[in-house]
């Protein structure tokens, strides 16, 4: 049970960045116990979500051949076959993605006043496939690497025909934050330092790759680059700093 | 005529950031001449926009009292009355804001292949008032300052109940980039360095203030902070570097 919550919170990466909480939502029981330090509180989740919310990380009709091809490549590495024909987990793992964060607790009472029913995850707030952020994340725990395949929709425009610098920053925060949260506790973004090298045309597919530089106490340092899918063109590079945080204050009412 | 184009391009701030081009679109004639260095080309604009597109910088029903109060304060400083009762421009200027970039030229031919008809400005891509980015920018040329009043809608969620770090980065890029483009030529974002100090609750209104640190050749250095509306709480601070660019290649077909 505690492990379920731990896994849930592992996806939560902070107070100024993106939680991919939905990833664990399907695994949550409707009533779970949470133990933190010296306090144990029952948290009842009256899940207002459909039993199987839409997983935005799966292919849809808007994905172009480049996006689909890369998805299939990394997805094929998520499961490998042994010599004996047995299937087991591969080196990569696809991270599902939903448009909601955690919502209710304690029998319908809000988990806290800051968790609002109408809220939607910034990168998943559009129903129209292909219009904005189309992306899927794969993580390789062994190599401490994360790869995101990102197709930029026409509603992300900044300068004519190109992706807005803020939309690029949003994807960098998403990828590095999700990566940092996979490594340990929930985290919050403390710093993003982004160099814009070359503009990204609307409609194009790019790769966003992150790797862990170091961990020091509560700090996780991650670097990241955005390139063309063949890696030949560098669009953006960035460093990110995340701080591990306690989140019990978000879940508990005392 | 050349001045009209100059004013048009002044609003365009780069290849990885946000142009507020619509601001001058109403003033453009349907056929204008553009002189750049040694080339003079006729650029005909078959404006596919309604004559008066929606100006997103004007109040709507979603604006809360804090947003409205601040808007009225800065708006009142855009026009002052002399002792003789005459009205004239004040120290501040409100910047109109639209959801499109420049689209067509030369009698219906695309300005360039990179300018797409369906594209919408990232920060103005929602029709629903209050759902995402509600903001208005005021600029004070004399003091080289820019102020943005920003109300964060429920579709900008990152961590539960709080604004996504990418949405904050988007607003910082928008404000600093618009500010840099007001000072000189069109610019592109070269670097954003953002420190996240304190999370911003969804639905709240904050102030984003930018000031010019220095200009060196093609470079403009701007710093920026995001605070509560009374200035007592620092949410985010950032520095930004912009490079002046030539944009004739976006407008001309040879």
Average residue pLDDT of chain A: 78
The radius of gyration of chain A is: 18 Å
Q: In one word, what is the shape of chain A?
A: globular
Largest sheet of chain A at a glance?
A: 7 strands, antiparallel
How would you classify the quaternary structure?
homodimer
Order of helices and strands of chain A: HHEEHEEEEEEEHEEEEH
Q: What is the structural class of chain A?
A: alpha+beta
Strand order of the largest sheet of chain A: 5-8-9-11-12-13-10
**Low confidence ranges of chain A:** 1-12, 14-47, 103-115
Number of β-strand runs of chain A: 13
Amount of helix of chain A:
10-25%
Please tally the helical runs of chain A, counting DSSP H or I stretches of 4 or more residues. Answer: 5
Tell me what you see in this structure.
Chains A, B: It is a peripheral membrane protein. Chains A, B: Its EC number is 3.1.2.2. Chains A, B: It is found in: Cell projection, Ruffle membrane; Cytoplasm; Mitochondrion inner membrane; Mitochondrion intermembrane space. Chains A, B: One of its GO terms (cellular component) is ruffle membrane. Two copies of one chain form a homodimer. Helices cover 19% and strands 33% of the residues of chain A. Chain A has 254 residues and is of the alpha+beta class. In chain A, strands 5-8-9-11-12-13-10 form a seven-stranded antiparallel β-sheet. In chain A, strands 1-2 form a two-stranded antiparallel sheet. Chain A starts with a helix and ends with a helix. Chains A and B meet through helix 4 and strand 10 of A and helix 4 and strand 10 of B.
